[in-house]
Write a structure and sequence with these properties.
This protein is an alpha/beta fold and 323 residues long. The chain has 2 domains: 232 residues, 3-Layer(aba) Sandwich (Rossmann fold); 55 residues, no CATH class. Helices cover 30% and strands 20% of the residues. The chain contains 12 helices and 10 strands. The strands form 2 sheets. A 7-stranded mixed sheet has the order 1-2-3-8-7-9-10, with helices on both faces. The protein has a 3-stranded antiparallel sheet with strand order 4-5-6, with no helix packed on it. Strand 4 and strand 5 form a beta hairpin. Helix 7 packs across helix 8. The longest helix is centred in the middle third of the chain and has 15 residues. The radius of gyration is 21 Å and the shape is globular. The structure holds zinc ion. Zinc ion (ZN) binds next to loops. It comes from [Candida] arabinofermentans NRRL YB-2248. GO terms for molecular function: GTP binding; GTP cyclohydrolase II activity. InterPro entries: GTP_cyclohydro_II, RibA, RibA-like_sf. Its EC number is 3.5.4.25.
Length: 323
Protein backbone atom coordinates (compact mmCIF):
# COMPACT_ATOMS: atom_id res chain seq x y z
CA UNK A 1 0.00 0.00 0.00
CA UNK A 2 1.51 3.36 -0.96
CA UNK A 3 2.14 5.78 1.85
CA UNK A 4 1.56 8.75 -0.38
CA UNK A 5 -2.00 9.25 -1.48
CA UNK A 6 -2.25 9.45 -5.26
CA UNK A 7 -4.89 12.13 -4.92
CA UNK A 8 -2.88 14.39 -2.65
CA UNK A 9 0.37 15.64 -4.14
CA UNK A 10 2.66 18.05 -2.29
CA UNK A 11 1.41 20.94 -4.39
CA UNK A 12 -2.29 20.48 -3.67
CA UNK A 13 -1.44 19.68 -0.07
CA UNK A 14 0.03 23.16 0.05
CA UNK A 15 -3.06 24.68 -1.54
CA UNK A 16 -5.30 23.16 1.07
CA UNK A 17 -3.46 24.85 3.90
CA UNK A 18 -5.25 27.51 5.88
CA UNK A 19 -3.50 30.87 5.83
CA UNK A 20 -1.05 31.50 8.65
CA UNK A 21 -2.52 33.01 11.75
CA UNK A 22 -1.08 36.06 13.41
CA UNK A 23 -3.68 37.21 15.91
CA UNK A 24 -2.77 36.94 19.56
CA UNK A 25 -6.07 37.88 21.10
CA UNK A 26 -9.47 36.30 21.27
CA UNK A 27 -10.96 38.69 18.73
CA UNK A 28 -12.03 35.98 16.36
CA UNK A 29 -15.08 34.10 17.57
CA UNK A 30 -15.13 31.91 14.44
CA UNK A 31 -11.64 30.72 15.19
CA UNK A 32 -12.57 30.11 18.81
CA UNK A 33 -15.51 27.99 17.66
CA UNK A 34 -13.21 26.06 15.33
CA UNK A 35 -10.50 25.40 17.88
CA UNK A 36 -12.63 24.63 20.90
CA UNK A 37 -15.22 22.01 21.70
CA UNK A 38 -18.71 22.70 23.01
CA UNK A 39 -18.27 20.65 26.12
CA UNK A 40 -15.16 20.09 28.14
CA UNK A 41 -14.05 16.49 28.61
CA UNK A 42 -14.57 15.03 32.06
CA UNK A 43 -11.20 14.42 33.68
CA UNK A 44 -10.36 12.66 36.91
CA UNK A 45 -7.05 12.68 38.71
CA UNK A 46 -6.54 9.14 39.97
CA UNK A 47 -3.10 9.43 41.57
CA UNK A 48 -0.56 12.03 42.62
CA UNK A 49 2.96 11.59 43.93
CA UNK A 50 5.89 13.76 44.95
CA UNK A 51 8.86 13.40 42.64
CA UNK A 52 12.24 14.71 43.78
CA UNK A 53 14.01 15.70 40.57
CA UNK A 54 17.63 15.56 39.53
CA UNK A 55 18.02 19.33 39.75
CA UNK A 56 16.72 19.48 43.30
CA UNK A 57 13.23 20.80 42.61
CA UNK A 58 10.28 18.75 43.83
CA UNK A 59 7.29 18.23 41.58
CA UNK A 60 3.95 16.55 42.07
CA UNK A 61 3.04 14.28 39.20
CA UNK A 62 -0.73 13.99 38.66
CA UNK A 63 -2.15 11.19 36.53
CA UNK A 64 -5.49 11.77 34.80
CA UNK A 65 -8.12 9.60 33.16
CA UNK A 66 -10.88 11.08 31.00
CA UNK A 67 -14.03 10.27 29.05
CA UNK A 68 -12.76 10.94 25.51
CA UNK A 69 -9.74 8.68 25.10
CA UNK A 70 -8.02 5.85 26.96
CA UNK A 71 -4.69 7.60 27.43
CA UNK A 72 -3.20 8.63 30.74
CA UNK A 73 -2.58 12.36 30.47
CA UNK A 74 -0.48 14.05 33.12
CA UNK A 75 -0.07 17.28 35.01
CA UNK A 76 3.41 18.06 36.29
CA UNK A 77 2.73 20.41 39.17
CA UNK A 78 5.24 22.73 40.80
CA UNK A 79 3.86 23.81 44.17
CA UNK A 80 2.28 21.63 46.84
CA UNK A 81 -0.61 24.05 47.20
CA UNK A 82 -2.10 23.41 43.75
CA UNK A 83 -4.93 20.97 44.43
CA UNK A 84 -6.83 18.73 42.06
CA UNK A 85 -10.52 18.89 42.92
CA UNK A 86 -11.16 15.38 41.59
CA UNK A 87 -8.20 13.87 43.46
CA UNK A 88 -8.96 15.47 46.81
CA UNK A 89 -12.70 14.85 46.65
CA UNK A 90 -13.61 12.54 49.53
CA UNK A 91 -14.65 9.12 48.34
CA UNK A 92 -17.22 7.01 50.08
CA UNK A 93 -15.74 4.57 52.55
CA UNK A 94 -12.08 5.37 51.99
CA UNK A 95 -9.68 5.61 54.87
CA UNK A 96 -7.07 8.28 55.57
CA UNK A 97 -4.50 5.68 54.57
CA UNK A 98 -6.27 5.20 51.24
CA UNK A 99 -6.15 8.94 50.68
CA UNK A 100 -2.43 9.14 51.38
CA UNK A 101 -1.79 6.19 49.06
CA UNK A 102 -3.46 7.84 46.10
CA UNK A 103 -1.79 11.17 46.91
CA UNK A 104 -4.72 13.13 48.36
CA UNK A 105 -2.75 14.49 51.31
CA UNK A 106 -1.60 17.90 52.43
CA UNK A 107 2.03 18.77 53.13
CA UNK A 108 4.54 15.97 53.11
CA UNK A 109 4.34 12.26 53.88
CA UNK A 110 6.68 10.73 56.41
CA UNK A 111 6.99 7.32 58.07
CA UNK A 112 4.27 6.87 60.67
CA UNK A 113 1.95 9.59 59.38
CA UNK A 114 -1.70 8.53 59.75
CA UNK A 115 -3.86 11.46 58.68
CA UNK A 116 -3.99 12.61 55.05
CA UNK A 117 -5.93 15.82 55.67
CA UNK A 118 -3.64 17.26 58.35
CA UNK A 119 0.13 17.78 58.36
CA UNK A 120 0.77 18.64 61.99
CA UNK A 121 4.50 19.19 61.45
CA UNK A 122 3.86 21.88 58.85
CA UNK A 123 0.66 23.15 60.47
CA UNK A 124 -1.46 22.48 57.40
CA UNK A 125 -5.05 21.28 57.37
CA UNK A 126 -7.43 20.68 54.50
CA UNK A 127 -11.06 21.71 54.66
CA UNK A 128 -14.02 20.17 52.88
CA UNK A 129 -17.65 21.08 52.33
CA UNK A 130 -20.51 18.74 53.25
CA UNK A 131 -20.24 17.03 49.85
CA UNK A 132 -16.61 16.12 50.33
CA UNK A 133 -15.24 18.79 47.99
CA UNK A 134 -12.03 20.45 49.03
CA UNK A 135 -12.58 24.11 49.89
CA UNK A 136 -9.32 25.49 51.22
CA UNK A 137 -6.14 24.97 53.16
CA UNK A 138 -5.64 26.49 56.54
CA UNK A 139 -2.26 27.29 57.96
CA UNK A 140 -1.45 27.30 61.61
CA UNK A 141 0.26 30.64 62.29
CA UNK A 142 2.56 29.01 64.82
CA UNK A 143 4.40 27.07 62.19
CA UNK A 144 7.83 28.39 61.41
CA UNK A 145 8.10 26.59 58.11
CA UNK A 146 9.69 28.68 55.41
CA UNK A 147 9.36 26.28 52.53
CA UNK A 148 7.93 28.35 49.67
CA UNK A 149 6.39 25.23 48.15
CA UNK A 150 4.03 24.99 51.07
CA UNK A 151 2.43 28.41 51.01
CA UNK A 152 -1.37 28.20 51.00
CA UNK A 153 -3.09 28.87 47.70
CA UNK A 154 -4.32 32.28 48.81
CA UNK A 155 -0.78 33.66 48.96
CA UNK A 156 -0.29 33.17 45.26
CA UNK A 157 -2.15 35.45 42.97
CA UNK A 158 -4.20 33.55 40.45
CA UNK A 159 -1.73 33.88 37.61
CA UNK A 160 0.00 30.57 37.16
CA UNK A 161 2.81 29.80 34.73
CA UNK A 162 1.54 27.02 32.47
CA UNK A 163 2.93 25.01 29.59
CA UNK A 164 0.71 22.73 27.53
CA UNK A 165 3.12 20.13 26.23
CA UNK A 166 2.34 17.36 23.78
CA UNK A 167 4.27 14.16 24.17
CA UNK A 168 7.27 13.85 21.84
CA UNK A 169 9.05 10.55 22.34
CA UNK A 170 11.62 11.34 19.67
CA UNK A 171 12.48 14.80 20.98
CA UNK A 172 12.31 14.05 24.70
CA UNK A 173 13.75 10.54 24.88
CA UNK A 174 15.45 9.63 21.59
CA UNK A 175 17.55 12.84 21.47
CA UNK A 176 15.97 13.92 18.18
CA UNK A 177 17.22 17.19 16.72
CA UNK A 178 14.29 17.33 14.29
CA UNK A 179 12.32 19.42 16.76
CA UNK A 180 12.86 21.45 19.93
CA UNK A 181 10.25 19.72 22.10
CA UNK A 182 12.77 18.38 24.61
CA UNK A 183 14.36 21.78 25.00
CA UNK A 184 10.99 23.49 25.44
CA UNK A 185 9.95 20.92 28.03
CA UNK A 186 13.19 21.39 29.98
CA UNK A 187 12.96 25.17 29.81
CA UNK A 188 9.36 25.17 31.05
CA UNK A 189 10.43 23.00 34.00
CA UNK A 190 13.40 25.23 34.71
CA UNK A 191 11.26 28.39 34.82
CA UNK A 192 8.63 26.78 37.03
CA UNK A 193 11.30 25.38 39.31
CA UNK A 194 12.78 28.85 39.77
CA UNK A 195 9.37 30.24 40.60
CA UNK A 196 8.36 27.24 42.69
CA UNK A 197 4.96 27.37 41.06
CA UNK A 198 3.49 26.29 37.77
CA UNK A 199 1.92 23.46 35.80
CA UNK A 200 3.04 21.52 32.73
CA UNK A 201 0.02 19.72 31.30
CA UNK A 202 1.53 16.76 29.46
CA UNK A 203 -0.81 15.45 26.80
CA UNK A 204 -0.28 12.04 25.19
CA UNK A 205 -0.69 13.22 21.63
CA UNK A 206 2.52 12.22 19.91
CA UNK A 207 3.35 13.72 16.55
CA UNK A 208 0.76 16.50 16.66
CA UNK A 209 -1.81 13.82 17.46
CA UNK A 210 -1.09 11.31 14.67
CA UNK A 211 0.81 8.82 16.83
CA UNK A 212 4.41 7.63 16.81
CA UNK A 213 4.11 5.23 13.87
CA UNK A 214 2.66 7.86 11.55
CA UNK A 215 5.18 10.39 12.85
CA UNK A 216 8.03 8.13 11.80
CA UNK A 217 6.51 7.90 8.31
CA UNK A 218 6.28 11.68 8.28
CA UNK A 219 9.99 11.85 9.12
CA UNK A 220 10.77 9.73 6.08
CA UNK A 221 8.69 12.05 3.93
CA UNK A 222 10.63 14.98 5.38
CA UNK A 223 13.87 13.25 4.37
CA UNK A 224 12.31 13.00 0.91
CA UNK A 225 11.85 16.78 0.86
CA UNK A 226 8.50 17.57 2.50
CA UNK A 227 8.24 20.01 5.38
CA UNK A 228 6.54 19.04 8.64
CA UNK A 229 3.13 20.31 7.51
CA UNK A 230 3.31 18.77 4.04
CA UNK A 231 4.38 15.42 5.48
CA UNK A 232 1.27 15.18 7.66
CA UNK A 233 -0.97 16.16 4.75
CA UNK A 234 0.66 13.59 2.47
CA UNK A 235 -0.21 10.96 5.06
CA UNK A 236 -3.81 12.23 4.95
CA UNK A 237 -3.58 13.69 8.43
CA UNK A 238 -4.39 17.28 9.31
CA UNK A 239 -1.35 19.53 9.70
CA UNK A 240 -2.15 19.53 13.41
CA UNK A 241 -4.54 16.97 14.86
CA UNK A 242 -4.08 17.97 18.47
CA UNK A 243 -6.86 18.99 20.80
CA UNK A 244 -6.29 21.06 23.89
CA UNK A 245 -9.69 20.70 25.56
CA UNK A 246 -8.24 18.02 27.84
CA UNK A 247 -5.65 20.56 28.99
CA UNK A 248 -8.39 23.08 29.71
CA UNK A 249 -10.30 20.50 31.74
CA UNK A 250 -7.18 19.55 33.69
CA UNK A 251 -6.39 23.20 34.49
CA UNK A 252 -9.96 23.72 35.67
CA UNK A 253 -9.65 20.62 37.85
CA UNK A 254 -6.46 22.07 39.35
CA UNK A 255 -8.30 25.29 40.19
CA UNK A 256 -6.24 27.37 37.78
CA UNK A 257 -8.19 30.13 36.09
CA UNK A 258 -5.59 32.73 35.09
CA UNK A 259 -2.63 31.57 33.11
CA UNK A 260 0.70 32.90 31.88
CA UNK A 261 1.08 30.54 28.97
CA UNK A 262 4.49 29.48 27.71
CA UNK A 263 3.93 29.21 23.96
CA UNK A 264 4.64 30.68 20.54
CA UNK A 265 1.43 29.28 19.11
CA UNK A 266 -1.46 31.79 19.03
CA UNK A 267 -3.98 29.05 18.24
CA UNK A 268 -3.02 27.29 21.46
CA UNK A 269 -4.01 30.37 23.45
CA UNK A 270 -7.52 30.30 22.03
CA UNK A 271 -7.76 26.51 22.28
CA UNK A 272 -6.70 26.41 25.92
CA UNK A 273 -9.06 29.18 26.94
CA UNK A 274 -11.88 27.05 25.57
CA UNK A 275 -15.31 28.05 24.38
CA UNK A 276 -16.49 29.42 27.69
CA UNK A 277 -13.10 30.84 28.69
CA UNK A 278 -13.03 28.99 31.99
CA UNK A 279 -9.28 29.50 31.74
CA UNK A 280 -7.99 32.94 30.82
CA UNK A 281 -4.57 33.46 29.28
CA UNK A 282 -3.49 36.77 30.81
CA UNK A 283 -0.02 36.71 29.28
CA UNK A 284 1.85 34.83 26.60
CA UNK A 285 5.41 33.99 27.62
CA UNK A 286 7.52 33.35 24.48
CA UNK A 287 9.64 30.24 24.09
CA UNK A 288 12.70 31.35 22.12
CA UNK A 289 14.95 28.49 20.92
CA UNK A 290 18.14 28.43 22.95
CA UNK A 291 20.25 28.06 19.82
CA UNK A 292 19.03 31.54 18.81
CA UNK A 293 20.05 33.06 22.14
CA UNK A 294 23.24 31.30 23.15
CA UNK A 295 26.51 30.66 21.39
CA UNK A 296 26.61 26.98 22.26
CA UNK A 297 23.34 25.81 23.85
CA UNK A 298 20.16 24.46 22.37
CA UNK A 299 19.10 22.06 19.65
CA UNK A 300 21.12 22.64 16.48
CA UNK A 301 20.50 20.89 13.18
CA UNK A 302 19.42 21.56 9.63
CA UNK A 303 16.19 19.73 10.48
CA UNK A 304 15.27 21.86 13.51
CA UNK A 305 15.88 25.07 11.56
CA UNK A 306 13.48 23.86 8.87
CA UNK A 307 10.99 22.76 11.52
CA UNK A 308 11.05 26.17 13.20
CA UNK A 309 10.81 27.97 9.85
CA UNK A 310 7.71 25.93 8.96
CA UNK A 311 6.12 26.74 12.31
CA UNK A 312 6.66 30.44 11.71
CA UNK A 313 5.81 30.62 8.01
CA UNK A 314 3.06 28.00 7.75
CA UNK A 315 1.54 27.71 11.22
CA UNK A 316 1.60 31.33 12.35
CA UNK A 317 3.90 30.87 15.32
CA UNK A 318 4.95 34.12 16.98
CA UNK A 319 8.68 33.77 16.81
CA UNK A 320 11.38 35.74 15.09
CA UNK A 321 15.03 34.92 14.94
CA UNK A 322 17.20 37.59 16.57
CA UNK A 323 19.51 39.43 14.12
ZN1 LIG B 1 9.05 17.06 19.02
Amino acid sequence: MPIISPTLSPSNALNSLPPPTTSTTSDDSAKRALLTSDTLPIVKCTARARIPTTNGVEIFLHLYTNNVDDKEHLAIVFGEDIRSKSLFHKRLGESQSDRMTRGAYVGRLCPGRRIADIDSKLGLKLQFDENGNITNDTVDDDTDDNDSNLKPASIWNDETLVRIHSECYTGETAWSARCDCGEQFDEAGRLMGLQGHGVIVYLRQEGRGIGLGEKLKAYNLQDLGADTVQANLLLRHPADKRSFSLATAILVDLGISKVRLLTNNPDKIIAVEGKDRLVEVVERVPMVPKAWLEANGGVRSVEVEGYLRTKIERMGHLLSKPE
